[in-house]
Amino acid sequence: EAQVTQNPRYLITVTGKKLTVTCSQNMNHEYMSWYRQDPGLGLRQIYYSMNVEVTDKGDVPEGYKVSRKEKRNFPLILESPSPNQTSLYFCASSLSFFPRESYNEQFFGPGTRLTVL
Amino acid sequence: GQNIDQPTEMTATEGAIVQINCTYQTSGFNGLFWYQQHAGEAPTFLSYNVLDGLEEKGRFSSFLSRSKGYSYLLLKELQMKDSASYLCALPDSNYQLIWGAGTKLIIKP
């Protein structure tokens, strides 16, 4: 089954304790992305990756790191989590990013609900 | 830059038709996406418009007017399972999708 998986699905942690949220896709997609979703603010992009070893900042990258060593995996790292990073996180992937004449829908993982105390 | 506006919440009756609007401002248009998101779940793709006009897909249709910076999602024969948030999104020139805050649709029996 074609899918994007994320782990863990739920996590409660404390300020300053490093954590990693894993993301993996089995569709051979080139483009991968991390979002956070907060009430009233919609989805905001944290980081994205156009392909292996190519990553770039989104709109809200502060406090986060990513890596793309393999095509299928795109982990999100919080080196020193803080309470303002409490949020619902989604990983997404698509075949590529869009030339105007075609489209590539983004497939989303199930989400990771993170609470930082 | 880009700016996307959607109504925060709408209410409709089961079996009826509802239109969810999305207005946007962008420096370069590269198409417009609609996604559906049930509470606590991941967004799922509904439609993509890059040319003006209406595209129909079963009970759901999406309309685009590039000159007016306007799109709408039309849901017909509403079912209770259509209760969800509907998100409008635009790709920008920096390989990012910019998202509206979403419209929460409440369906009443």
Describe this entry's structure for a reader:
The complex is a heterodimer of chains A (117) and B (109). Chain A is an all-beta fold. The model of chain A has no long low-confidence stretch (mean pLDDT 93). In chain A, a hairpin with a 3-residue loop joins strand 4 and strand 5. Chain A is built from no helices and eleven strands. The termini of chain A are far apart. Chain A has strands spanning 4-7, 10-13, 19-25, 31-38, 42-51, 54-57, 65-66, 76-78, 87-94, 107-108, 112-116. The radius of gyration of chain A is 14 Å and the shape is globular. In chain A, strands 2, 4, 5, 6, 9, 10 and 11 form a seven-stranded mixed beta sheet that branches. A four-stranded antiparallel beta sheet of chain A has the order 1-3-8-7, with no helix packed on it. Chain B starts with a strand and ends with a strand. Chain B is built from no helices and eleven strands. Chain B has 109 residues and is mostly beta strands. In chain B, the strands form two sheets. In chain B, strands 2, 4, 5, 9, 10 and 11 form a six-stranded mixed beta sheet that branches. In chain B, strands 1-3-8-7-6 form a five-stranded antiparallel beta sheet, with no helix packed on it. Chain B is globular. Helix content of chain B is 0%, strand content 57%. The mean pLDDT of chain B is 94. The A-B interface holds A 31, 33, 40-45, 48, 50, 56, 58-59, 90, 97-98, 100-101, 103, 105-111 and B 30-31, 33, 40-45, 48, 50, 87, 89, 91, 94-97, 99-102.
- Tell me the major beta sheet of chain A: 7 strands, mixed
Q: Which H/E pattern describes the elements of chain A?
A: EEEEEEEEEEE
Count of helical stretches of chain B? 0
Mean pLDDT of chain B: 94
Question: What is the averaged pLDDT score of chain A?
Answer: 93
Rg of chain A, Å, rounded: 14 Å
Give the distance, in angstroms, between the N- and C-terminal Cα atoms of chain B. 41 Å
Helix content of chain A: under 10%
Greatest interface: A-B, 26 and 22 residues
Name the helicity range of chain B.
Answer: under 10%
Q: How much β-strand is present in the residues of chain B?
A: over 45%
Described by its quaternary structure, the protein is: heterodimer
E-strand count of chain A: 11
Structural class of chain B: mainly beta
Number of helical stretches of at least 4 residues of chain A = 0
Shape of chain B: globular
User: How much strand content do the residues of chain A show?
Assistant: over 45%
